[in-house]
Design goal:
The structure is a single chain. The chain has about 350 residues and is an alpha/beta fold. The protein has a single domain, classed as D-Maltodextrin-Binding Protein, domain 2. The protein has 14 helices and ten strands. About 45% of the residues are buried.
């Protein structure tokens, strides 16, 4: 090959190599791309200033700090991304990575044992709830979710549930004929029927308008939701029946959770533990603060049943345990929950 031929060959080859190198560079991830953040979408239906709302924001804060930005948590509060009837399907599909629904939401998913939390008066106080939920029984329930593509992470407190309506409800008999909003739990439906009420299942985001327009006559739920959702403004009467616990189950999409790098997953587990402690401390204070604020508003009267009336509430509701036994795992399971929660 002559010198002029070699010069022509080089002039032809080197630009071609440059083009190939440029194309290859476009295909290879840059260092910045390789370090792209892991995104966690955390959807929930409560207001940002509820215990759950605050705990979700706290979780976001400590996760992003501890992972130095390797994990970004996007919190969608107040049903801004999905309504409560949509969110579990979105989690299973991987559209969101984390949720914190009420236990009763797992009944339609096929893990009906979670509805044991909805049984009336099965837990005498929050310590009894913790003894069960934080022990082998609660851990066993979380494990059952894995067959549904869900990883159970923790239980978050939200106080005990109360009744509210536009007429005084002092005893269960006062509920007769009232259309009362509930979540999708079959146990909650049985509770309402035990008092002679007509249960109406509605999405959480629709409750205020339904109460305001008279689509339903009343509802039941924790004081924090009654206050932050301003439901007390369209309910003349609140009764401190404290008939069942209001809590949440923090869950993740199993495929996403299992696919995380081990060190990241360990960090997230630590953050969940700390966020749980934060949530529970906030819930205790928030329940008292919400009650005081509702009383101070003057828009809704608050009635505390007498000891005799509380006995009547419990006596009226206790048949729900036998009625729902087969649904929530059987009488033996209910007995084990009682035993685990007892001192």
């Amino acid at each position: 090959m002559t010198f002029s031929t070699r010069r022509h060959f080089a002039a032809t080859l080197f630009p071609a190599l440059a083009v190939l190198a440029s194309s290859a560079a476009m295909l290879l991830p840059t260092a910045a791309q390789a370090q792209a953040s892991i995104i966690i979408k955390f959807s929930h239906v409560a207001a940002i200033d509820t215990p759950k709302g605050q705990a979700a924001e706290y979780f976001k804060k400590i996760v992003e700090e501890r992972t130095k930005g390797q994990v970004k948590v996007e919190v969608f509060a107040n049903s801004s991304l999905f309504k409560d009837k949509e969110e579990l399907e979105a989690l299973q599909m991987g559209t969101v990575q984390m949720l914190a629904p009420v236990p009763g939401k797992f009944g339609p998913l096929g893990v009906k044992e979670f509805e044991v939390f909805d049984l009336p008066y099965i837990f005498k106080d929050i310590d009894a709830v913790h003894r069960f939920a934080r022990g082998p029984g609660g851990a066993g329930l979380l494990k059952k979710l894995e067959t549904r593509g869900v990883t159970g992470l923790a239980y978050w407190d939200n106080g005990f549930r109360v009744m509210s309506a536009n007429k005084p409800i002092r005893t269960p008999a006062d509920m007769k004929g009232l259309k009362m909003r509930i979540n999708s739990s079959k146990v909650n439906a049985a509770i309402m029927k035990a008092g002679g009420a007509q249960p109406q299942s509605l999405a959480f985001s629709e409750v205020y308008q339904a109460l305001q327009t008279g689509v339903v006559d009343g509802t039941e739920g924790p004081l924090s939701n009654l206050y932050t959702q301003k439901q007390y403004e369209v309910q003349k009467h609140v009764t401190l029946s404290y008939h069942t616990i209001s809590n949440y189950v923090v869950v993740a999409n199993k495929k996403f959770w299992d696919g995380l790098p081990a060190n990241i997953r360990t960090t997230l587990e630590g953050a969940i533990k700390d966020a749980t402690e934060f949530n529970d401390s906030v819930a205790e204070k928030d329940e008292a603060a919400s009650l005081a604020a509702i009383k101070a508003s003057g828009k809704s009267t608050v009635y505390a049943p007498t000891p005799a009336e509380m006995d009547l509430w419990a006596k009226t509701m206790m048949p729900v345990h036998d009625e729902m036994a087969d649904r929530v795992g059987g009488k033996a399971f209910i007995d084990s929950v009682r035993a685990a929660s007892a001192k």
